[in-house]
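Re: [help] complex structure
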Amino acid sequence: MSTVRLWTDQEAEADPAVKAVFDDIRATRRSDVVNTFWRGLASDPATLKRTWDGLKAVMAEPGALDPLTCELIYMAVSVANGCSYCIHSHTAAARAKGMTEAQYGHFLAVVGMANQTNALVTAMQIPVDEAFLVSDGRPTGR
Amino acid sequence: MSTVRLWTDQEAEADPAVKAVFDDIRATRRSDVVNTFWRGLASDPATLKRTWDGLKAVMAEPGALDPLTCELIYMAVSVANGCSYCIHSHTAAARAKGMTEAQYGHFLAVVGMANQTNALVTAMQIPVDEAFLVSDGRPTGR
Amino acid sequence: MSTVRLWTDQEAEADPAVKAVFDDIRATRRSDVVNTFWRGLASDPATLKRTWDGLKAVMAEPGALDPLTCELIYMAVSVANGCSYCIHSHTAAARAKGMTEAQYGHFLAVVGMANQTNALVTAMQIPVDEAFLVSDGRPTGR
Amino acid sequence: MSTVRLWTDQEAEADPAVKAVFDDIRATRRSDVVNTFWRGLASDPATLKRTWDGLKAVMAEPGALDPLTCELIYMAVSVANGCSYCIHSHTAAARAKGMTEAQYGHFLAVVGMANQTNALVTAMQIPVDEAFLVSDGRPTGR
Amino acid sequence: MSTVRLWTDQEAEADPAVKAVFDDIRATRRSDVVNTFWRGLASDPATLKRTWDGLKAVMAEPGALDPLTCELIYMAVSVANGCSYCIHSHTAAARAKGMTEAQYGHFLAVVGMANQTNALVTAMQIPVDEAFLVSDGRPTGR
Amino acid sequence: MSTVRLWTDQEAEADPAVKAVFDDIRATRRSDVVNTFWRGLASDPATLKRTWDGLKAVMAEPGALDPLTCELIYMAVSVANGCSYCIHSHTAAARAKGMTEAQYGHFLAVVGMANQTNALVTAMQIPVDEAFLVSDGRPTGR
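Output below.
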C-alpha cells in the first residue's frame, strides 16, 4: 500500500492541472492507461507536471540514443537502486519496445558483472588509471 | 591508495597464473595496457581469472546487445553504485567504442530521470500495476 | 515474513530486560503500541536497549532540530536506502507530528531533485568547488 | 577530474542557451559564482536548463518547507548516496542559510540512527505494521 | 512476481545445458531442491552456468574463510543492497551451517553499527588517516 | 577536506566530555592514536559518546562472533556503502587482527559474488522460496 492517495480518473477529471498531465500521458503513449506512479504524484500537480515533462523529453522524444537503449539504462539504474516498481515497469516497456529474451539475458549478464566489479574495485580502493582521466585534453576553468 | 598491492609487469611475468590472464587481457584488447584493477586482483589468481573470464564473455565477445549499449549499462550501474574508478574506465571505454557527446548527454539525462523517479516511487511506495506483471502469460512452478 | 521471531507481549513480560525497554517505549510515546521493529530486536536485549536508547535520545528528546524536521531527514534516508518499513513508519510519524500534504509534496520534490542531481554529479565526477571546502577557516590537525 | 569538459565563462557567453541559464543562476542566487556542477552539465543545454529549472522551483522558490529544511533533506539524500560533491555543496548551503553547529550535530545524529535502523529492519525483514498503512482511509482505484 | 519465466523441472530436463547445472546444484548441495533464483536464470544458460560455477567455487568449496563466515559476509552485503530474497536465502543458509541466535544477534549489531558509522563518516567527509593507508610498504607501479 | 572541524588533542584535553571518550578509546585500544573519525564527531559530545559506546560494545568486547569475523562483516557493509574511509580503516583493523592475504582474497571473492547475485535477483524480481521463510515455526503476533 502506498503512502499517498492514488487518484482515480474521476478525481483527475475534476482538477484541470492533473487532467492536463493525464491527457498528455495518454496522448503521448497512445494508450488509455495512466499508470499508478502518476496517480500517486497527482497530489502535487507541480511535481507531477515537472516530472512528466522531464520524462517525456528524455524518454518519449527523439534523442541521440534509441528508445530501447534508454529503457535498458533505466532498468540498470532501477536494479541498482532496488526499485521494484521501476524494474517491473521499465522491463515491460523494454519488451514493448522490442527487447528480445536474448537481449534481456545479455542485459542481466552485464548488470551482474558491473555490480561484481564495482564491488571489487571499491573493496580494493583501486586508484583511477591516468589513461582514463584524459577526457578532452583541454584545461578546465571558469 | 589501494588496500592491496598492485602487481607490476615483472611480478606478473614471474607468476604463470597471473601472466596467463594478463596475456589474455592484452590479446583480447589488442593493447599493451593492463589497467590497475587487474593488478589489484592479481594477488588472488583464481578470482582474477574468474572475473576476467566473466568480463570477457559478457563485454568482449559478440552478444545480443552491441558493445556500446553494454558500456552504457555498465556506466549506469557504476553511477548508481558511486564507483568512481568504474565510471571513469567505462566512460572512457564507451567513448573508445564510439559514444558521441550527444549520446553521452542523453545518457546523463536518462540516468538523472531514472534516479529521480526511482526515489519518488520508493518514497510513495507505489504498488506495481497489474499490467506490468504479466511477463510471459504462463503459469510458473517447478 | 521476517527472519526473526517477533516477540509477543506475553513473552516480553517474562523477560525483564525486554520488558524494561517495551515499558519505556510505551511511556515515552504515551501509547500502548510497541511496533514490530522492537519485537524483532527483542531476541538480542542488549541491541534492543542500545538502539532504543539511541533513537529516544535523537528523536524523542528536545534537540536543536524540531521533531518534524527530524522525521523528514529520517524519511529521506529511508527512501535512499529503499527501506519500505522505515518509509511507512516515519511517514506516518511525520504526519502524526503535523506534516501537511503540501509539506509532503515539497519533501517528495526535494528528494526527487536530490537523487537526480546526485546521479548527474556522480556520473560526471564533478570536482568539489574550492568555495565549498572552507568550512571553518582553521587548520586541522591532532 | 571530471568525465566532461567544464565550461568556462567565456565559452558560456558564446552559447545563448548556456548563457541564459548561467545568467539566471547568478540572478537567482545574487552571486557571481556558477558552481562547477552547472559547468559540467553545460555540454547538454537541454538537460542543463531542465535541471536548473527544477532545482530553482524546488529549492529557491517559496514552498511548504523552509529553505533550511530543504537543505537538510538534500544533505540526508546525498549522504545516503555517498555523493561527496553534493554533501559539500549542500552542507555549505545549509550553513549559508543559518544552520548552526548544534543543528548540524543533531542532523548527524538523526542520519546515523536512520541508517542504523534501516539496516536492522532490512536485515530482519520486518513486516510493516498495519497501523502505518492506513494513510487516507479511502479506497484506491483508477 | 518475477520479470522472467521460472523454469520447471520438466523444462530443465529437456535442455541439456540447464539440466547439467541443475544436476550439479543438487549434487553439490546434496539436496533435491533447486531454488527459484536458478530457475529464473535458466533462460540464459551461459549466465546460469557462469554464475553457478562462480558461486560454487566461492561458497561451496574449501577456502581460506570457513563457510559460516562466508554466509555472514554474504548477508551483510545483501542487507546493504536491500535484496530481500538474498537476505532470506543466506540467513537460512547461515542457520543451516550452524549460526546460533546469539551469533545472529551479534551480526545484527555489527551491521547496524557499520551502517551508522559509514553514514557519519560520509556525512562529515572524514579524510583517511595516514596510518590506514600503508598496506604493504612497497611502491606500486607497473 | 571534511565538512567539520577535526579536534586536536589540545582541544580535546580542554573539554571534559570529549576528553573522557578520547581517553577511553586509547585505553580500550591500548594505543595513543585517536583516529580522525572521532575528531570529527567531537563537536557533538553526546553523539561522540553514544557512537563510541556502541562501537566498543559491539566490536571491542567479547561477543558471540570473534573479532576478525566482525571486521569482515564491517568491511562488507562499508564496501556496499562505498565508504572509502571505513573500507581503509576496517581492512587495516582486520589485518591487525590476523586476516591473512588468502582470507582477504576469499573475502573479495564472496563480496564480488554477493553483489553480482544480489543484482541478478533484484533485476529478475525473484520471489522468495517458501523454504527460506520458515524461520522459527511459531506463529508471530503481539
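Chain D has eight helices and no strands.
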